[in-house]
Amino acid sequence: MKWVYSFGADNAEGDASLRNLLGGKGANLGEMASLGLPVPPGFTITTEVCTEFYKNDRTYPEGLKAQIDAALIQVGESVGMKFGDKSRPLLVSVRSGARASMPGMMDTVLNLGLTDETVEGLATLSGDPRFAYDSYRRFIQMYSDVVLEVDHHSFEEILETYKEEHDYFLDTEMTADDWRTIISGYKKVVEDALGKPFPQDPQEQLWGAISAVFNSWRNDRANTYRRLHHIPESWGTAVSVQAMVFGNMGATSATGVAFTRDPSTGDNYYYGEFLINAQGEDVVAGIRTPQALTKESRLKMGDEEPSMEEAMPTAFAELCAVFDKLEKHYRDMQDIEFTIQDGKLWMLQTRNGKRTAKASLKIAVDMCKEGLITEEEAINRVDPHSLDQLLHPSLDPDAERDLVLTGLPASPGAASGEVVFNSDEAERLAQEGKNVILIRVETSPEDIHGMHAAKGIVTARGGMTSHAAVVARGMGRPCVCGAGDLKIDKSEAFFTVGGRKVEKGEVVTIDGGAGKLFFGAVPTVQPELSGDFGELMGWADKVRRMRVRANAETPHDAQVARDFGAEGIGLCRTEHMFFEADRIVAVREMILAEDKKGREAALTKLLPMQRSDFEALFKVMAGLPVTIRLLDPPLHEFLPHSDDEIEEVAKSSGMDAQKLKDRAHKLHEFNPMLGHRGCRLGVSYPEISEMQARAIMEAACNVAKETGEKVTPEIMVPLVAKREELAFLKERIDCIAIEVLKENGIKLDYLVGTMIELPRAALTADAIAQDAEFFSFGTNDLTQTTFGLSRDDSASFLPDYMRQGIFERDPFVTLDPDGVGALVEIAAEKGRATRPNIKLGICGEHGGDPDSINFVEGAGLDYVSCSPYRTPIARLAAAQAKL
Ligand code: ADP
Ligand code: MG
Ligand code: MG
User: Fold this and answer.
1) Which SUPFAM superfamilies does the record match to this protein (predicted)?
2) Is 93 in the pocket of ligand 1 (CB under 6 A)?
3) pLDDT-based confidence at residue 352 (cuts at 50, 70, 90)
4) 3-state secondary structure 52-121
């Protein structure tokens, strides 16, 4: 078995196509090496080793050690060094890398191979003892932290105290002797903590680090991250071992991170940060404030320190050429990590960069126009979920605001919430339904759950590429980073900025796009969608097969939906129109009526109200189909609760209050979800359905006459299980419809159909289709009735199911393809067998979920219907499903 793949100058055994085997990092290192880019040589241990490791009780497969030894010798030879050698010691980094980037994993260990002996060799060889000891102290600290799991605070404390005592401000002021002293302090910490000295055998160090990576694949942080991002445990991680290059060799060396375009806005310029005389994570850790890449960005930010363009022009030019080459090669925006050792550029990582929704749109559209990608590729580049970020509010520009602090605009969006200072509390409060803003000095992968729970994140430290910034952008949370004036009190009861104090629990508003935090809840406004949005949506509309409709009852929602490109209404829930104060009395009267006569009296009051509701909807949706569902919910939802309410109904209907009370009592149900609702109401009280049918048809006629536009009502009978239920009601609806059309003297197409939301209906869809002119899959109820699972009650145990992996997805969010989906497919097929042109759609929550939309495309339905704000998401997802 081949367990190890080498990469190095101008060639590599692996490339980007081997991502599953080598992880993202390893595969791209191979790809960059093959492209002829300057990549320090190294090798990648495959994800299959990880799988074997866990299969065999955390032991390594045979042959692995020999392959690693050989690869290590080869790496040493190509740089003229040798691992463990006293005078020419090869140093390596040990880096983890799964298929998908995973912040929950082990951190990279740099400078591995340094010991008390080899550090002397490095000092002599480089002629720079300060550099050698700086590297050694970094190694001891990193290795102790991530491999030996010694608490890192002790190390930080030693360094802080030493710097204070010696009046140093920056690490770069430390001399070789200073670092020697620090190193002996560090080694003592390790020995005290572990009862044995820091490992002095480079082989032991190497295997320690490799094992730490593989073990970290199943640590708590990684498990949480995988769960949140649906990454299967079976993927495993790879490990890359790579010859070190040094950014900490003085003023001609540096380390940096960069994006080929701005990941916040998508603007096409080089975006990034770098630090002179620094190594690895220094830029991200926010210990020193990094410098800008280009002169232009520096001037824009008002920085004093020179940009890379100014400080290292030759390396900068080289870097620009690399950016160009990588973008053309990967045909996507790249996120790059690089190091400059004594003026020479080295590439350490590239990957497709994470970006905001706004940037994602702009980059896709720009790249298509630049001829780098096709329209279809551009459509596939944008994650439909991410559009959510664009469709949500930003701060009202006219609103008054009282500034708390300013930091870096790390991730756009606006949100208000209560101040909290730690992630566990953020999660707890969010579960109680509170909006929270998480305020931290900095964040680490341990904060993922808190960041997820928070509406926004603010940190005191860190730049635009810090952990907080990257993770927040990925999650679509607004984030302000590097707010240097922010001081969180040790008690975690308040923070201060300048002279002002903000207590825990106080409400603040974050504006991530501006990098600002305000006191109180600042009002927000709807976003203006950019030209890029319209353009990409246009491309998506050309491609998609399925229509997209919206679920809406009010003219306002219908208008929002239409503005977002909805092509009709897929579900108008008439009961939502019944709850308004001026109507509920009449509705109660109708329900509590003792006989048909009483009911009809109440219905007469409701008819004009319903008719005007429908007229408003038809007007907004003129020219487009509108599906209206007859009254569906269990009666008890409308029952009067208080004596006052009963009094009111008694007054309005002339019935006796006590009688009303008895009647309400009689209507009580043990299991309303499966009780007297949907078409069952219509079977018991046909006059209710008849009133609704009349209101719909009269409204349609009025609007058709008034506007001259085509009006297409689709009358939908809910909760049908047997064909006979639908037949019973359809006959009555048709009667009314014909009557109304005759009264109005016009011709108008209308359809009568049903919701498929019970397994029996799906299984007998061929029979039902004899009467139904359309099916709309009510997948919320169909999921409830297929699983026998109540949506309202499942919240208490669904998390257990997710944790245990029994459910991979919440079936109320993403359509269960095997069960519920199978019923959809059966019903679609049977329906079409009876009535080849039957119209098929889906109108549950799933209608706005991209994965469910993808399934529905496969099942060949004609349209999806979703909430108004999700319309663009559905349009894009439908296009992607088709491609
Ligand atoms: P992460 O996945 O957290 O980004 P990496 O493995 O990319 O971890 O390592 C983080 C940083 O460490 C890199 O950006 C780079 O600056 C530094 N680094 C890693 N390997 C080397 C190396 N061989 N030489 C110099 N620096 C390295
Ligand atoms: Mg990296
Ligand atoms: Mg239903």
Assistant:
1) Glutathione synthetase ATP-binding domain-like (SSF56059), Phosphoenolpyruvate/pyruvate domain (SSF51621), Phosphohistidine domain (SSF52009)
2) yes
3) very high
4) HHHHCCCCCCCCHHHHHHHHHHHHHHHHCCEECCCCCEECEEEEEEECCCCCCCCCCEEEECCCHHHHHH
Q: Is 152 among the catalytic positions?
A: no
- Nearest C-alpha neighbor of 782 from the set 800, 763, 796, 797: 763
**Residues 781, 677 contacting (CB under 8 angstroms):** no
Closest ligand to C-alpha of residue 673 is 3
- Give yes or no for a contact between 463 and 408, defined as CB atoms under 8 angstroms apart: yes
CATH topology of domain 254-386: D-amino Acid Aminotransferase; Chain A, domain 1 (3.30.470)
843 is catalytic: yes
Ligand number nearest to the C-alpha of 257: 1
The CB of 242 under 6 Å from ligand 1? The reply is: yes
Q: How confident is the model at residue 645 (pLDDT cuts 50, 70, 90)?
A: confident
Take residue 312 and report the two structure tokens written for it.
């290292």
pLDDT (tens digit per residue) in 619-642: 999 999 999 999 998 777 778 878
392-525 adopts what CATH topology?
A: Glucose Oxidase; domain 1 (3.50.30)
Residue 112 near ligand 1, beta carbon < 6 Å? no
Domain boundaries, given as residue ranges, for the chain: 254-386, 392-525, 551-747, 757-883
For the chain, give the longest Cα–Cα distance: 105
- With a 6 Å cutoff on the Cβ, whether 349 touches ligand 1 is yes
Residue 581 pLDDT > 80, yes or no?
Answer: no
ipTM of the complex: 0.96
Write the residue with the smallest CA distance to atom 8 of ligand 1: 108
38 C-alpha to center of ligand 1: Å?
Answer: 15
Contact 110 CB / ligand 1 (< 6 Å): yes
Tell me what pLDDT residue 286 has: 65
Q: Which of 282, 274, 281 is nearest to 303 (CA)?
A: 274
Whole-number Å distance, alpha carbon 567 to ligand 1 midpoint, is 50
> What is the CA(777)–ligand 3 centre distance, in A?
9
SS3 label, residue 578: coil
Catalytic position from the list 679, 843, 846, 866:
843
Reported as a single tens digit per residue, the pLDDT across 650-706 is 888 888 888 888 888 888 888 888 999 999 999 999 999 999 999 999 999 999 999
Cβ(245) – ligand 1 distance below 6 Å: yes
337 lines ligand 1 (CB under 6 A): yes
The band of 46, judged by pLDDT with boundaries at 50, 70 and 90, is very high
**Contacts of residue 636, Cβ cutoff 8 Å, sequence gap at least 6:** 667, 668, 669, 672
Protein residue closest via CA to atom 23 of ligand 1: 244
Please give the distance, rounded to the nearest whole angstrom, from the Cα atom of residue 349 to the centre of ligand 2.
Answer: 6
Per-residue pLDDT at 449? 84
Does domain 551-747 match CATH 3.20.20.60?
yes
Question: Ligand 1: does its nearest atom lie under 6 Å from the Cβ of 248?
Answer: no
Q: What is the mean pLDDT of the chain?
A: 92
Q: Which residue among 50, 467, 679, 701 is the active-site one?
A: 467
Q: Which CATH class is domain 757-883?
A: alpha beta
pLDDT of 133 reads 97
Atom nearest to 279 CA in ligand 1: 16
Does the beta carbon of 255 sit less than 6 angstroms from any atom of ligand 1? Answer: yes
Q: Does this chain's domain 551-747 share its CATH topology with 757-883?
A: yes
Residue 284: strand, helix, or coil: helix
**Residue nearest ligand 1's atom 6 by CA:** 95
Distance 718 CA to ligand 3 centre (A): 6
**Helix ranges, 220-356 (H):** 220-229, 282-285, 295-301, 308-311, 313-330
DSSP string, 653-677: H---HHHHHHHHHHT--S-GGGSS-
Cβ contact 507:522 at 8 Å: no
| Ligand 1 centroid distance, CA of 314 (Å) | 22
Separation of alpha carbons 649 and 123, rounded Å: 92
